[in-house]
Amino acid sequence: MARLVHNVEPEFSEQARKKKLSAVVLIELVVDTEGMPQDVHVARSAAESAKKPEDKPAYETLDAKAIEAVEQYRFAPATKDGRPVRVLMHAEINFQHMN
Description:
Radius of gyration: 15 Å
Strand content: 35-45%
CATH architecture: 2-Layer Sandwich
CATH superfamily: TonB
Distance between the termini: 37 Å
Structural class: alpha+beta
Number of helices: 2
Largest sheet: 3 strands, antiparallel
Number of strands: 7
Helix content: 10-25%
CATH class: Alpha Beta
């Protein structure tokens, strides 16, 4: 398993901040042999939290912000038999609106 050595806090989008949204985005990624995130994409969208259809676009902006943050993560690569290997991982990004 790759070990996270540097993470970046995701930023709230302006749309999500104005609507005071909270949501969780599940990101799937591959950590390469250099510890860099690759193939970063949404596995479970924040939009699944939308109670009202008109809020869905604002929730989807959180998906983009989660990807933006995870692409800046850095890892100690996973190893097998002492050699670095690519691994599939998930990152749960929690957006909590503060009142």
